[in-house]
Specification:
Number of domains: 2
Helix content: 25-40%
Structural class: alpha/beta
Largest sheet: 12 strands, mixed
Number of strands: 12
CATH class of the largest domain: Alpha Beta
Shape: globular
Length: 330
């Protein structure tokens, strides 16, 4: 069977993404890495990092070799300067992302690994952009869930990049059910967990305190959990968020579903920021990203930690392998 092929998008060319990608390329591997990026940006990053890098045609078998990347050229308008954003180069970031994701949808790649994107500079370029997760979902025409995780904890979100004032209205039975179904299906298919156990947080302090601190748990979350449990989903909750992450509470739990961004992610990032990755559940292909920003202050210094990108590539390969095995059982 042919080696798996992962598409790689460095993200913001002035950030740490290009350096992290050329460092990723140095690792021994049996799968192909195909970068959608500007050749000069990658070569310059390799020079600053002091590593050898060969850029080859995406079909070249050497794209599976250490020190080599397959390349689909996506030129920047101006030479990228580490640490210095350039609005003229922002469109190339999304062009690379869209093309790599299209390749996944078309079957050219088995998964997508993405570096950090600078949202503000993309919007400054006149391109409405709320996040890569949302853009990939729109391109694929499907519902998705953002889940961040590392070896010890996975946290998925019902709502993502919303102002806190908008969250209560977004916590609907449909949103909670959609999230839980996608999380359950992804844990079964991609992670190989036969019967996932998912802990579900309440929205309010103390999970609403029987309605005294808010009614969403009674009117929305609990009825949804009851209905899905009747279908066989193993769901705990709604749980108070302030105690749900205690080790004893997490024993045997495969993922936690939080109602909003800053309810669950601070705990996840505190417990293992360097190892954490961002996974988009529900896409027709695996997509895993770094769990950090462009780190403009570190760009070009050689001090950026590649651990999150390494973890993202490793997990993307694992998920792609699981999907291939499911399609072609022995």
């Amino acid at each position: 069977m042919a080696p798996l092929r992962l598409a790689l998008v460095p993200g913001e060319p002035a950030g740490v993404g290009p350096e992290l990608c050329v460092r990723l390329a140095q690792r021994p591997r049996s799968h192909a890495l195909i970068a959608h990026a500007d050749a000069g940006v990658l070569s310059d990053a390799a020079g600053r990092a002091g590593v050898a890098l060969a850029l080859v045609d995406p079909a070249d078998p050497d794209a599976s070799c250490p020190g080599v990347l397959g390349l689909v050229p996506v030129p920047v308008v101006n030479p990228a300067v580490p640490g210095r954003l350039d609005v003229a180069n922002a469109p190339s970031v999304l062009q690379a992302l869209d093309a790599a994701a299209r390749g996944c949808l078309d079957g050219a790649y088995d998964g997508l690994v993405t570096g950090p994107v600078h949202k503000a500079i993309v919007n400054d370029a006149g391109i409405a952009y709320s996040g890569t997760t949302e853009r990939l979902a729109a391109q694929a025409g499907c519902d998705v869930v953002m889940m961040l995780g590392h070896d010890d904890l996975r946290v998925a979100l019902v709502t993502t990049h919303l102002p806190l004032s908008a969250v209560p209205d977004a916590i609907t039975a449909q949103a909670v059910e959609r999230t839980l179904r996608i999380v359950d299906a992804a844990l079964r298919r991609d992670f190989g967990i036969a019967v996932p156990r998912v802990a579900v947080l309440g929205l309010n302090p103390h999970a609403g305190e029987d309605g005294h601190l808010g009614g969403e748990e009674i009117s929305v979350i609990t009825p949804t959990l009851v209905r899905l449990r009747a279908e066989g989903l193993d769901l705990l909750g709604p749980l108070p968020a302030d105690t749900a992450f205690l080790p004893a509470k997490l024993a045997g739990v495969d993922a936690v579903v939080a109602m909003y961004h800053d309810q669950g992610l601070p705990v996840l990032k505190y417990s293992g920021f360097e190892r954490a990755v961002n996974i988009t559940l529900g896409l027709p292909y695996p997509r895993v990203a770094v769990d950090h920003g462009t780190a403009l202050d570190l760009a070009g210094t050689g001090r950026a930690d590649p651990s999150s990108l390494f973890a993202a590539a490793d997990l993307c390969l694992r998920l792609a392998s699981n999907r291939r095995a499911a399609r072609h059982p022995a």
